[in-house]
Amino acid sequence: MKRVLCALFSIAFLGLFMAGCSGMRLIENDVNAFYNWGGAPPAPGTPYRFERLPSQQVIGSQQDAVEALARTALAKVGLQLDAAAPRYSVQVRVSTQVIETLPYDGFGYDGFGFARPGVFLGAGNHGGAFGLAFPMGFSQTYFRRELTLLVRDLQGGQVVFETRAANDSVAAETLPVLAAMLDAALRGFPQPPPMPRRINVEIPR
Q1: φ, ψ dihedrals at 99, nearest 5°
Q2: Lowest mean pLDDT among 43-47, 69-73, 166-170
Q3: Where are the domains of the chain?
Q4: At the topology level of CATH, where does 24-102+138-204 sit?
Q5: Structure pTM?
Q6: Residue 184 pLDDT exceeds 60
Q7: Which of 19-28, 42-51, 116-125, 166-175 has the highest mean pLDDT?
């Protein structure tokens, strides 16, 4: 019976492990958006161009990749890139913070990710036991990404749309995560709900 139960447990565990290693990854985004079009919001096909800060000019190739993702996301909500005759300008800012976290925080760990040795006593049907315990603790890396997208009216120079998305995850694939964040940040464009929202987007693993 024990062998049967162990076999069933192993099969179930293997199935869960395989399911977790395939399929889709869920990207959770905290989104907050604001708008003040001062009139009718942009119609489908409205042209825009990208605008860069001086610091973004320095990291040109990286910003190129971010703006390529933004172009795809903006096309989904009806805006079209046309640097020759734009109605609006779009600025995209991205920041990524790499954070090391400790999986254990409590008895048996020293607060720096290392295990503290300990002493254990035990008893059972066949007598007692005495020994030393040496638990192991490992740090974990996760990424905090923040994205801001601003739409500026080129006629009046005012920012008419602002959206921000934040994501914490262990996913190291930056560009796919940023693409999901852009889709989440533009959810409801051009007039999203005026409140913070949690928007989940699935991407392939």
Answers
A1: -125, 135
A2: 166-170
A3: 24-102+138-204
A4: Double Stranded RNA Binding Domain (3.30.160)
A5: 0.73
A6: yes
A7: 42-51
Q: Exposed, middle or buried: residue 201 (CB in 10 Å: 0-12, 13-18, 19+)? A: buried
Q: What percent of the chain has pLDDT over 90?
A: 60
Per-residue exposure over 51-87, b if at least 16 CB sit within 10 Å of its own CB, e if not: bbeeebeeeeeebeebbebbbebbeeeebeeeeeebb
Question: Measured between alpha carbons, how far is residue 75 from residues 43, 52, 62, 68 in Å?
Answer: 12, 19, 20, 11
> Residues near 184 by Cβ (< 8 Å), separated by ≥ 6?
27, 29, 31, 165, 199, 200, 201
Cα-to-chain-centroid distance, residue 69: 15
CA distances from 69 to 14, 62, 66, 149 (A): 36, 11, 5, 12
Q: Measure the N-to-C terminal CA separation of the chain; round to a whole number of Å.
A: 38
